[in-house]
Amino acid sequence: MSILRARPHSAGPRSRALRLAGAAVATAAAISLTACGSGDSAGSDGKVDVVLGWVIQPEFASVYAAEALGYYDEAGLDVTIKPGGPEVNAEQLVGAGSAQFGVDNGSNVFLSNDVGTGLVTLAQLEQETSLRLVSRAADGLQGPETWAGKRIGVWSSANSLYASLAKHDIDKDTDVTLVEQGFDMSQFLNGEIDMASAYGYNEVGQILQAGVPMSDLTIYDYADDSTATLGLQLFGNGEFVEAEPEKAADFTAATIRGQVYCRDNPEECVDFVSDAGASIDRDFMLWQMNEVNRSVWSTEVPIGTLDRNSYQQTADVLTGTGVIENQPDLDAVMGTEIYDAAVAKLTDIDLTNTGFAPKENLVP
């Protein structure tokens, strides 16, 4: 049984964003993540919370590895890991001060900051999003110019899709049919949608696991349209990061160390995720961990690098296509000093992909 990653879809990127501000405090209280108090005063005793962008799975293995291997303890941090899910929004909760740290896609952080959450990126684990669009090769859907009239499955995190539609003057309300995509790939497999949103390390595997060969699929990468945005990242509550920069650097360093460990020890990291409560079969998680590693270690830059050009590209994509309204203040969102301080604590390990070799012939 494979993992389910779909997120509830809203009417559009702006309607979701506008709801964030009003709902943040109420949601934070309802989810019972208030144990640490407000963002600027929490953590004085080393207790911090980290909220994940989705449920327990290898996407977040870095956090579970850092906890299981004692990296957080060594840094003097008492970390509580809070899994995400359909009713949990990591950006809202961290922005409201109900948790100090989060792990999720960079485009969601930009969207949340557009309504004033003041989140700060601490490390960029993926330089580009792993979000893809999947269709059947027989349908010939090679790019946005072929999407008119098609039924496209979407989640609220499909910011690159909204950007591509706008870039090609495709009206999301009239030229295509956006379908709320459920918690598995059944709508795609049953022919209810022509194109499905899919993360390369998750839903693509679900389709393959259902018996559809890769040769029968077209995997559309938003990078081909220059609408790819920042992928998985660590972020923090801005007030907490400003008040406790050393703790923010310690958390960042320990989590990066966990990501490096998972690069070199994927099977053990799958065990950490399983022990944390993941309800996925082990073979599928090992495939996921391998694909996460392929994505995280796909570039030559050191893990976690905050590349200003990449941040500017994401800002331009999201503002230029109306996904967010305001040009982000990159100096405010990029926690470069925290990242640099974290890297200074990691001189004993290789932060590059020089020695990385993905496992071959793994199947989901």
UniProtKB/TrEMBL annotation:
Keyword list, A-Z: Iron, Metal-binding, Pyridoxal phosphate, Thiamine biosynthesis, Transferase
Functional pathway: Cofactor biosynthesis; thiamine diphosphate biosynthesis
Catalytic activity: N(6)-(pyridoxal phosphate)-L-lysyl-[4-amino-5-hydroxymethyl-2-methylpyrimidine phosphate synthase] + L-histidyl-[4-amino-5-hydroxymethyl-2-methylpyrimidine phosphate synthase] + 2 Fe(3+) + 4 H2O = L-lysyl-[4-amino-5-hydroxymethyl-2-methylpyrimidine phosphate synthase] + (2S)-2-amino-5-hydroxy-4-oxopentanoyl-[4-amino-5-hydroxymethyl-2-methylpyrimidine phosphate synthase] + 4-amino-2-methyl-5-(phosphooxymethyl)pyrimidine + 3-oxopropanoate + 2 Fe(2+) + 2 H(+)
SsuA/THI5-like domain ranges (all copies): 57-268
Similarity remark: Belongs to the NMT1/THI5 family.
Subunit annotation: Homodimer.
Role noted for this protein: Responsible for the formation of the pyrimidine heterocycle in the thiamine biosynthesis pathway. Catalyzes the formation of hydroxymethylpyrimidine phosphate (HMP-P) from histidine and pyridoxal phosphate (PLP). The protein uses PLP and the active site histidine to form HMP-P, generating an inactive enzyme. The enzyme can only undergo a single turnover, which suggests it is a suicide enzyme.
Family annotation (PANTHER family): 4-AMINO-5-HYDROXYMETHYL-2-METHYLPYRIMIDINE PHOSPHATE SYNTHASE THI11-RELATED
Name used for this protein in its record: Thiamine pyrimidine synthase
Source species of the chain: Gordonia terrae NBRC 100016
